[in-house]
């Protein structure tokens, strides 16, 4: 992964944290810098735990047509909130809703600011 692609991904996640925080009261992040720090911690948690959890839950993910991914993302958000005080999430159900919103916001942002096809 290129350095500027990694930084762009962190920035998009930070904006997604801010948008979800403003849309949903079950998750709170104070400002952009707190969102950026949460994005960094979330990235580390995702790399260390996310891959293992996704691999272990493949059969369950297959049975639920991929919907179990939201449960994994909710767990990763809860771990991130435990590790970083700048992110507050009010329980597992709030984390599940936040994970769903985070995925939607991230998809929309990525469609606007993601990789552009070269002709």
From TrEMBL:
<keyword id="KW-0812">Transmembrane</keyword>
<feature type="transmembrane region" description="Helical">
    <location>
        <begin position="32"/>
        <end position="53"/>
    </location>
</feature>
<feature type="transmembrane region" description="Helical">
    <location>
        <begin position="7"/>
        <end position="26"/>
    </location>
</feature>
<keyword id="KW-1133">Transmembrane helix</keyword>
<keyword id="KW-0472">Membrane</keyword>
<feature type="transmembrane region" description="Helical">
    <location>
        <begin position="60"/>
        <end position="79"/>
    </location>
</feature>
<dbReference type="Pfam" id="PF04020">
    <property type="entry name" value="Phage_holin_4_2"/>
</dbReference>
<feature type="transmembrane region" description="Helical">
    <location>
        <begin position="91"/>
        <end position="113"/>
    </location>
</feature>
<protein>
    <recommendedName>
        <fullName>Phage holin family protein</fullName>
    </recommendedName>
</protein>
<dbReference type="InterPro" id="IPR007165">
    <property type="entry name" value="Phage_holin_4_2"/>
</dbReference>
């Amino acid at each position: 992964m290129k350095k500027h692609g990694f930084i762009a991904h962190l920035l998009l996640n930070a904006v997604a944290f801010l948008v979800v925080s403003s849309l949903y009261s079950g998750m709170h992040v104070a400002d952009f810098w707190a969102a950026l720090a949460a994005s960094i911690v979330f990235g580390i948690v995702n790399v260390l735990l996310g891959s293992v959890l996704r691999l272990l839950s493949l059969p369950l993910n297959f049975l639920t047509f991929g919907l179990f991914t939201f449960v994994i993302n909710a767990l990763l958000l809860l771990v991130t909130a435990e590790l970083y005080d700048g992110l507050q999430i009010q329980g597992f159900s709030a984390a599940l809703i936040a994970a769903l919103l985070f995925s939607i916001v991230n998809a929309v942002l990525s469609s606007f600011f993601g990789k552009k096809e070269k002709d």
